[in-house]
Design goal:
By secondary structure, this protein is mainly beta. The chain has one domain. Helices cover 15% and strands 38% of the residues. The chain is built from three helices and 16 strands. The strands form two sheets. Strands 1, 2, 3, 4, 7, 8, 9, 12, 13, 15 and 16 form an eleven-stranded mixed β-sheet that branches. It has a five-stranded antiparallel β-sheet with strand order 5-6-14-10-11, with no helix packed on it. A hairpin with a 5-residue loop joins β10 and β11. α1 packs antiparallel against α3. It is globular and about 50 Å long.
């Protein structure tokens, strides 16, 4: 029963939300648009190689039913960060912004396009001709103690500029030039589920956009717990089948 309780608790690390899809591969952008009268807003748009659970690529490109053509709400997707992007944290103080020790596992993805991995960028093509600033707000991590970063890597594979780092106070904003889209590397230090609240502002325009990016780093601990629970149940059943039948008789005291 204790194991089942742990499993149930771990499953709760990723909230159950209506109509949410796992974005698993290909190109997508976090758009910042400016609409006269309503102000800035965030959206997601997908490219011709994008993949998500339960949707065809054509559906992804078309956008959310009933919404703006080619756009989805941030709340409709969880970006899945696969095990394949896990590496040991490189040595050197220049990597300290990641928020973990050299040699510890980190998950880094998506400054460059990789097969089978989300390629997530930032887009200001609809921001009214202004720059777009994406500011990271209060990050929620389940399980706790993970760090998040956003940075660029130079041609030698070293960090060139750091824009977000929950391990460093005040490193929380990236400004994207007007009428363009840019890709950065995302860094995470723990497996599990992350929610990244964002505030978006457009250069020269009033108001702000708000939205939350969700990420699932695999392996999720609940996956392992469920596997262990299944193996434990199968093992218990097997032991019961193999256990010899005991002859009935009086109980022996002192044993």
């Amino acid at each position: 029963m204790a194991l089942l309780a742990v499993v149930a608790t771990s499953l709760a690390t990723r909230p159950v939300r209506a109509t949410v899809y796992d974005y698993t591969a290909g190109h997508a952008d976090i758009g910042l648009a400016y609409d006269a009268g309503t102000g800035p807003r965030f959206f997601l748009q997908f490219g011709g190689d994008a993949e998500a659970s339960g949707l065809t690529n054509e559906e992804l490109i078309a956008g959310q039913p009933g919404g703006v053509v080619g756009e989805w709400s941030l709340a409709s997707f969880v970006t899945v960060v696969p095990q394949s992007v896990q590496i040991p944290r490189p040595a050197g103080a220049e990597w300290n912004f990641l928020g973990t020790d050299a040699g510890d596992p980190v998950w880094i993805f998506s400054q460059q396009s990789q097969g089978g991995v989300p390629f997530l960028g930032f887009d200001t093509a609809k921001a009214g001709g202004g720059t777009g600033t994406y500011t990271l707000s209060n990050v929620t991590v389940r399980p706790p103690n993970g760090e998040v970063s956003l940075f660029q890597i130079d041609g030698l594979g070293m960090p060139d500029a750091v824009y977000w780092s929950t391990a460093q106070a005040g490193v929380d904003a990236v400004t994207v030039p007007a009428l363009t889209h840019v890709h950065y590397a995302f860094g995470f230090t723990k497996p599990g589920y992350y929610e990244l609240p964002l505030i978006g502002t457009g250069g020269g325009f009033p108001g702000q956009a708000t939205g939350t990016l969700a990420f699932q780093l695999v392996p999720e601990p609940s996956t392992y717990l469920l596997t262990l629970a299944g193996l434990g149940a199968a093992g218990l059943a097997a032991r019961r089948r193999r256990a010899p039948k005991q002859a009935s008789g009086p109980a022996i005291s002192g044993v």
